[in-house]
Amino acid sequence: MSEKYELEEVPCNLCGSTRSRTLFTATDTYVDLVREPYSVVQCLDCGLAYLSPRIPEKAIGDFYPDDIYLLKDDGADRKVRGLENFYLLHLFRHQMDKALKTATGQGITPRSVFDIGCGPGHRLSLYKERGMEVAGLEISTDAEYARRQYGIDVFRGTLEEYLEKRGQKKTYDIVTCYYVAEHFFDPMGSFEKIKRILAPGGMFALVVPNFGSVQAGVFKGRWTYTEVPRHTYFYTRETLGSFLDKAGYDVKGFSTMTNFWHPPSIVLSMFPSLDPRFNWREENSGAPGTKALLRRAAWVAATLALSPLAYLECLAGRGALLSAYAVKRGPA
Fold first, then answer.
1. How many CB atoms lie within 10 A of CB 290?
2. pLDDT of 141
3. For the segment 252-263, what is each residue's pLDDT rounded down to a tens digit?
4. At what angle do helices 187-194 and 237-247 cross, to 10 degrees?
5. Which of 110, 153, 256, 293 is an S-S bond match for 135, by CB 3.0 to 4.6 Å?
6. Is the pLDDT of residue 2 over 60?
7. SS3 track for the chain
8. Which of 96, 83, 67, 108 is nearest to 252 (CA)?
């Protein structure tokens, strides 16, 4: 490994065991700081898969350049970015409808929502359109964009910093956490802290890459959701359910169904060079957009071709994204 980064070995965050076996190795395909592969291991006692050894939390910020999760409509071609955001909002609306329907089914009248890792605020803007009180947490500069573009109260910082500065002054009927828990360095501690933001009986809705999916089993280290070293934990229904139960939630359901026109990860696992982040990086650097447009065209074609296959995976209960819905149990 690079001399600049001294990796750390970690025990299983779910059961504390130090007994594990290596499942496969993977490399970072986007941030060229460490050339050697990382190891994804599995706990021999509870089955949790995680990254070990890993980049320490104090250094992980180096692996999150500003352009890595850019989902805004600014940049070299505002029309193209606008189309990408239209597509994303369609997917976010699908997720929102599922969360609200589940909450209502649990007897919750959702009036407020807090989104952890809200990015530039696109998803929260949809809840706001429904007349709900919204707020969020975001560690990147996207927090400023969400405030400016949508007028949303977004705290910039970590979950720990948010709780330290704002405490339990405000709780919410729903807390959402989409594509974030796989980045946690201490999932158990984070899930316990999130309860402090939830109102009594409130619902926690989260989405993570499904390590029990067909794609994860087929692609392994090539699976786009492996994304080392930024992804540190890899969840299945069983391990995520155990985390939530131990952290003080009653799990109400799981789902691996997704929108038909969103074949998550299968396109990028098969064709990594089509990753939209390469387009954003080139455009932000001022490079000509010809390659980016060709990549986008190829991505659309691959999405149309592979959507039916990905949807069959979802119907079989082994889709690439795992949604979980849980209700806060007792006092935080």
1. 9
2. 86
3. 999 998 877 677
4. 50
5. 153
6. no
7. CCCCCCCECCCCCCCCCCCEEEEEEECCCCCCCCCCCEEEEEECCCCCEEECCECCHHHHHHHCCCCCCCCCCCCCCHHHHHHHHHHHHHHHHHHHHHHHHHHHHCCCCCCEEEEECCCCCHHHHHHHHCCCEEEEEECCCHHHHHHHHHCCEEEECCHHHHHHHHCCCCCEEEEEEECCHHHCCCHHHHHHHHHHHEEEEEEEEEEEEECCCHHHHHHHHHCCCCCCCCCCEEECHHHHHHHHHHHCEEEEEEECCCCCCCCCCHHHHHCHHHCHHHHHHHHHCCCCCHHHHHHHHHHHHHHHHHHHHHHHHHHCCCCCEEEEEEEECCCC
8. 108
Count of CB atoms within 10 A of residue 140's CB?
Answer: 17
Residues contacting 61, CB < 8 A, separation 6+: none
Peptide bond into 53 cis (omega under 30): yes
| Angle formed by the axes of helices 159-166 and 187-194, nearest 10° | 30
Residue 96 C-alpha from the chain's centroid: 15
pTM exceeds cut of 0.85: yes
pLDDT of residue 89: 83
